[in-house]
Amino acid sequence: MNVLLQPSPIAGTLHVPASKSLSHRALICSGLGQGVSTIEHLGDSKDIQATLSCLKNLGTKITVDPKTNLVSLQGCKPQNLTDPVTLDAYESGSTLRFFIPIVAAGQELVTFKGQPSLLARPLGVYETLFHNQNLRFDQSPEQLIFQGPLTGGSYALEGHISSQFISGMLLAAPLLGGIDLEVIGDYQSRSYVDLTVDMMRQFGIIVEEVNDHHYHIAGDQYYQSRHVQVESDWSQAAFFLVLGMLKQSLTLTGLKQDSLQGDRVIFDFVQQAGGLLNWNEDKLEVSPHQMHNFTFDLADCPDLGPILCTLAAFVPGKNRLIHTARLRYKESDRVAAMEEELRKWGVEISSDEDSITIIGKDSYVSNELVTIDSHNDHRIVMAMAVFALCANQPCVIKNAQAVNKSYPTFFADLQSLGVELKEV
User: Fold this and answer.
1) 384 half-sphere exposure, CB direction, 13 A CA radius
2) Per-residue pLDDT at 123
3) pLDDT at 162
4) What burial class does residue 381 get, using C-beta atoms within 10 Å of its C-beta: 0-12 exposed, 13-18 middle, 19+ buried?
5) Residue 255 has what pLDDT?
6) How far apart are CA 104 and CA 96, in angstroms?
7) pLDDT of 256-298, one tens digit each?
8) Residue 245: count of CB within 10 angstroms of its CB
9) 3-state secondary structure the chain
10) Any catalytic annotation for residue 138?
11) What is the pTM of this model?
12) What is the mean pLDDT of residues 88-108?
């Protein structure tokens, strides 16, 4: 799907979709629980469908009320599997990394399928862990094959690689009979682990934080049935907060002011860059105001990288993003992708191993229709759509269906705000 965006005024109110991060965690805790759990306001994207699919293949019974969209889950016990199982994570890194230790609590052979871009992503943390226990773990471009059972006990994981490995081990802990988990070194993206711990506690698991880098989960614990409501996604709100700051005022609803989501920091970033933000009860209003140069640290919020590149391009002067190394190992190399696409507009952008520098300016003009490559990455599509709307120039985004991974209604939501666009 190729989408043509036209220069458009924007206005209105948008309800931000459910948090993808919290939807994954709510599904897993529900799907492993005793009894029937219910989830309200669950996210709907390819990544969430991947987690639903894995739970179903493991034996979770899932029903959806067609009138209320309330999702009910009768939990399963992966540690008791009696036959080999094949799971498909599609393109979802969270699904893959969360489920590996969960399914490895049992002793059956497990085969994970997925898109080549997913299966190429680093899994060395788990590979080392499995090999240390003399367990099979074979990763190839076509599939991942491994076999448990992992044991409970003490684990140590590097904190700078990906928080998904830490969350995966914590989620699996009740199935493994309890664990002690030490996070070694620089602990990045801790906020995502905080989401995991909070969700586990909501489902009855006692997670003891011995210190800032040490978790203890005792044995003989089981996920309990609960009802949860998934809050809206600050990661997705980021695109509209930047759009409202750079172009015209917008109002967003559904966001939680005291959210544990790490990407809530976009509120602070937009304010620091000069946007005007105001809470009116449960509504968040964003408006253009006065631009300020910035240096933002992405160690705990790497997913904000692409949209912050767009923001930096329109703030005149030198702007920097630091601790950006992990952006190179997402659905695409997001540093290289944003460099390639922003340069098509004439943006002055450069990068090194762990930072991005952008010399922003007020406006951008192209004498030709700019064609953007999605790089098959949902966040590149959305960030570049915001850029085109702020540049007030026509733009074509190729393979824009990549947004289905996390935000399938993104273009419909833009249209609801007055954006003129069509499939070409």
Assistant:
1) 35
2) 95
3) 87
4) buried
5) 97
6) 12
7) 999 999 999 999 999 999 999 999 999 999 999 999 999 999 9
8) 27
9) CCEEECCCCCCCEEECCECHHHHHHHHHHHHCCECEEEEECCCCCHHHHHHHHHHHHHCCEEEECCCCCCEEEECCCHHHCCCCEEEECCCCHHHHHHHHHHHCCCCCEEEEECCHHHHCCCCHHHHHHHHHCCCCEEECCCCEEEECCCCCEEEEEECCCCHHHHHHHHHHHHHHCCEEEEEECCCCCHHHHHHHHHHHHHCCCCCEEEECCEEEECCCCCCECCEEECCECHHHHHHHHHHHHHCCCEEEECCCCCCCCHHHHHHHHHHHCCCEEEEECCEEEEECCCCCCCEEECCCCHHHHHHHHHHHHCCCEEEEEECCHHHHHCCCCHHHHHHHHHHCCCCEEEECCCEEEEEECCCCCCCCCEEEECCCCHHHHHHHHHHHHHHCCCEEEECHHHHHHCCCCHHHHHHHCCCCEEEC
10) no
11) 0.92
12) 97
Which residue in the list 303, 333, 352, 373 is annotated as catalytic? 303
Average pLDDT for 11-36: 96
How large a percentage of the chain has pLDDT more than 70?
100
pLDDT confidence bin for 331, thresholds 50/70/90: confident
Q: How far is the C-alpha of 48 from the C-alpha of 22, rounded, in Å?
A: 10
Given pLDDT bands bounded at 50, 70 and 90, which one contains residue 126? Answer: very high
- Name the residue among 297, 301, 294, 314 with its Cα closest to residue 386: 314
